[in-house]
Amino acid sequence: MKSLRFSSSLALALAAVASLVAGSARAQAAPDAPALYRQHCAACHGEQRTGGMGPALLPESLERLRRPEALKVITQGRAATQMAGFAPALKAEEIAALAQWIYTPVLPAPTWADADIRASRVETPGAKDLPAKPVWSADPMNLFVVVEGGDHHVSLLDGDRFERMHRFASRYALHGGPKFSPEGRFVYFGSRDGWITKYDLWNLTVVAEVRAGLNMRNVAVSGDGKWIMAANYFPHTLALFDADLKLVKTYAATTADGRASSRVSAVYDATPRQSFVVALKDIPELWEISYDPKAEPLYDGLVHDYKMGEGVPKPGQFGVKRSRLDEPLDDFYFDQAYTHAFGATRPKGEGQPNAQVVNLDVRRTIARLPIAGMPHLGSGITFDWQGRRVMASPNLKDGAIDVIELDSWKPVKTIRTPGPGFFMRSHEKSRFAWTDSMMSPTARDTLTIIDKTTLEPVASVREPGRTLAHIEFTKDGRYALASVWEMDGALIVYDATTFKEVKRLPMSKPVGKYNVFNKITRSEGTSH
What we know:
Cyt_c-like_dom, 5-stranded antiparallel β-sheet, single chain, 4-stranded antiparallel β-sheet, metal-binding
């Protein structure tokens, strides 16, 4: 018995040693992802993965790129870019290690200070001397800027003939919608990894570029065209530029006492107020930053003792006016008077999404919107219905359009759709609103058309088995343009009255299209 116990113990010990040896061998054979990155990737994507010739490879920048897609890109490369596939050079396990490693945080965390922003700026020689008139013959007010996310290009479309006029390469992953100067000559693009590109539409050339941050949400252009503001996720900052993309100042996205900081959810221009309005992702505040040279001075908090210096104001222009909220806003849009901001909250953990109305004059939440699910208020529209002003918004969770009266903040109707959607669009001269169901696995191929006078669905158009989304109208509202949101996609032109297809242009995942006139006139049917 003693011998048997000894043999068993010896066997267990030998098995343990064998397991350790095997584990050690596996560890030694495991690919060294940091070394592989330095050898194959750093030259284009930067030593700290902050980007260079190629985009940033930070977790914040890759949050919308699924890991299987990242693996595919490393393996096969990207068409029409300098990203070559590494399948011939690396083993499958090495590629897998790289794909996993780029989603891990960089330590120590990279920084992006004012000096870095200024050093990043480049200007195209001679761009300022280009003629102040288009080099092409189309209507500059009915021009469409089409962002093709499939191969990171931008197409310019004649909105009368529906012909592509020009196509050029863009920065990686443009986001948040391009913004136009007030006369429609210049367009400003913001990329996920922080670059702002100023492009001269009339002369078909880049004017200047600057990197505002390492991970950026969107940009806004002031109504007078003099100022550009960028909202950053990383670092937690806002960056203010002049029209030539020269840095004016940065704002730390923190509470007034500096104890908490936040990602910046979005920044939008409020032209009638001569200000930028800013939502913070992690702090329950909505900021308003005036660019009016005659803006009234700002006082932080209550002034009750001038001897303590509490009555000393801050300059009104470019100062931060804070509206304190119960919960942070993920995104928002305005009523046509720009008195109210409608924002959606995406709480963490067990909390439920909700919507709130912020009065920008009294600087507080004045109503909660009775919307279930996950409202996508950043894509809402407003219009008149039976003598009342209403807003309508798609829902990211439920197949529904919620219609709310703006005077009472009470629900008017919930319009059922085939599935949850992301975009809703209309036009002042059109009777109809169009919405997609692109968040639905079964109805992503369907656009639902709603009669704004009856609030009833009246028709639908389909692209079977493919994603159909993001409507934009021509400046006169006669035609509606939709995206087949696929790599081998297309731009489809529909008659906005009969809903019949008029023309189809092949494009590479046209994620968004933007009409110059509708954007600069702040059409009630599109995002601002």
